[in-house]
Write a structure and sequence with these properties.
Layout (H helix, E strand, L loop, with lengths): L2 E5 L16 H11 L5 E3 L28 H6 L5 H5 L11 H17 L5 H9 L1 H16 L10 H4 L3 H10 L1 H27 L3 E6 L8 H5 L14 E5 L9 E6 L3 H6 L3 H11 L4 E4 L7 E6 L9 E4 L2 H12 L4 E3 L7 H9 L4 E4 L21 E4 L8 H6 L3 H11 L6 H10 L5 E5 H4 L28 H14 L11
Parallel strand pairs: 1-2, 1-12, 2-3, 3-6, 6-9, 10-11, 11-12
Antiparallel strand pairs: 4-5, 4-7, 7-8
Helix pairs in contact: 5-6, 6-9
């Protein structure tokens, strides 16, 4: 099989509410993919974002991001009126203004909640999802009572889950708990409609699971025994990566580490639930920071940098064998970028997961560079760039003249037609799958980047606007998709 697809996070979709959502706009996006020979849609994790608005730092590994709930769909359901929508302010179509969006969406969701009467569908949802939903709702309610402070700053009885204290919240704040469950119900109901439409249009969805979870999450609060905490629920060691070419002090991420011995004893129950829940939403899962399943960098929690860490062994092949026994075949894509050892490569091959090849990393004048197209193998996914990269056009424009010449000589192009040649190069690779960020389909330059790693604010805001020539550019990309044997039904596609 040879196929291609587009990377676009749902928050980037057009909508009149300041952020993309799960409305007709999402269905129109699927139509655009399907009608232009694209078999895949990829995006970031769909969880509820917290500090910094990053989809890789969410309040729960199982919950949905309710900022994606569509007000228009709530009107169709009779939970909002068109008059309710008139009070919604005009927000930017070009980027997500998270502060106003959070405030204004909350107002609409509260109005919808006020009109909602429990249905059998809602009751069934709450019962089916209770294994994570009850703790998540409780987490969000207690967090609100503590002025949204992280859970380790709560009063001790709540932080350490004293049974009497938790029961008091449940008895006194039943409506707030119901509200949190209600908005999760809306997310999963609306996403279910989008997912069903994608299946109808034969578009497969690639979701994302971060290797680590956020410290300030219902996951860590509700199940502290799964994480490397002391008796006061404080991390003993935290996640990061060691010093390298890019950073003399490494990267100190600060995520809590797992107690892999405990997880192994319970059959990796938390991870099993996490993967199973994600597979209810998507067809394939990209595993972020895959190398940590083989070995991970552990840094003492009190450290100011990642320098004084150490490599520790991850759960390895046993983890994947255990998950496979429980869930069956695992449609994984391994994010195997960075400092990858032979053991990491072997683990990826053992579980039959394709790795990632990024064209922006290919051109360093080293003929053995694994990202150069002639070194790419079939068991991989080629990208021009990822959500963490600059757009390809902007990246190219910032290169020195010698590197620009090197790339143009390789692609047999000029600077003027670089963008088209770069797409051709990606599509022509040996990888069975090629994924292109929508910004590169549009040939966008400076100012259209999705994320700058290590920068807390101003990320995840890019949006696809109606003024952008998406239809025209996608039609051109469809032609290239056919030329390089990646279209459904083409001679090279199984």
């Amino acid at each position: 099989m040879r196929a291609s697809g587009i990377f676009l996070h749902p928050t980037s979709l057009p909508s009149p509410y300041g952020i993309g959502d799960l409305s007709e706009s999402a269905l129109a996006w699927i139509d655009l993919l399907s009608s232009n020979q694209q078999l895949f849609w990829q995006f970031c994790p769909l969880g509820p974002t917290g500090y910094g608005d990053s989809p890789y730092q969410t309040f729960c590994s199982f919950a949905g991001n309710t900022l994606l709930v569509s007000p228009d769909e709530l009107v169709k359901d009779g939970l909002l009126s068109k008059a309710d929508l008139k009070s919604y302010p005009k927000l930017s179509d070009e980027h997500v203004e998270f502060g106003p969006v959070i405030t204004e969406k909350e107002k609409l969701l509260r109005k919808a909640f006020g009109k909602f009467t429990d249905t059998n569908d809602f009751i069934d949802f709450c019962n089916k999802e209770n294994w994570w939903l009850a703790d998540y709702a409780l987490f969000r309610v207690i967090k609100k009572l503590h002025k949204e402070r992280p859970w380790w700053e709560w009063e001790s009885a709540y932080k350490l889950r004293d049974a009497v204290a938790l029961e008091s919240v449940i008895s006194e704040h039943g409506q707030e708990l119901r509200y949190q469950k209600f908005i999760q119900y809306l997310f999963f109901k609306q996403w279910g409609k989008v997912r069903a439409y994608a299946k109808q249009k034969n578009v497969l969805i690639i979701g994302d699971i971060p290797f680590y979870t956020a410290y300030d999450s219902s996951d860590t609060w509700a199940q502290p025994s799964e994480f490397l905490f002391d008796t006061e629920a404080r991390p003993i060691s935290v996640a990061g990566v060691p010093p390298d070419y890019f950073s003399e002090t490494g990267q100190l991420w600060g995520n809590p580490l797992y107690r892999w011995d405990t997880m192994r004893e319970n059959g990796y129950a938390w991870w099993r639930g996490r993967i199973q829940k994600t597979l209810e939403l998507v067809d394939y899962i990209r595993i972020d920071h895959f190398r940590a399943f083989d070995s991970y960098w552990a840094v003492p929690a009190a450290s100011a940098t990642a320098i004084n860490g150490e490599w520790r062994k991850g759960p390895g092949l046993h983890f994947f064998q255990t998950i496979k026994e429980a869930l069956g075949e695992l449609p994984f894509i391994a994010e195997d970028l960075g400092d990858i050892t032979p053991d990491v490569t072997k683990l990826r091959e053992d579980i039959n997961a394709p790795g990632m090849k990024i064209l922006q990393f290919a051109f360093d004048a080293n003929p053995a560079n694994p990202y150069l197209p002639y070194n790419i193998t079939k068991d991989s996914v080629t990208y021009t760039g990822t959500h963490d990269n600059d757009t390809s056009q902007s990246w190219f424009s910032l290169l020195s003249e010698p590197y620009k010449k090197l790339i143009c000589d390789y692609l047999n192009c000029t600077e003027k037609n670089f963008a088209d040649a770069f797409l051709r190069c990606a599509l022509g690779s040996a990888s069975w799958l090629c994924i292109i960020p929508m910004q590169d389909i549009l040939g966008l330059g400076t100012g259209h980047r999705m994320n700058i790693p290590g920068v807390m604010w101003g990320n995840w805001q890019w949006r696809l606007t109606k003024a952008m020539p998406a239809k025209k550019k996608m039609e051109r990309f469809a032609e290239l998709t056919k030329i390089y044997g990646r279209a459904p039904g083409s001679g090279h596609c199984l």
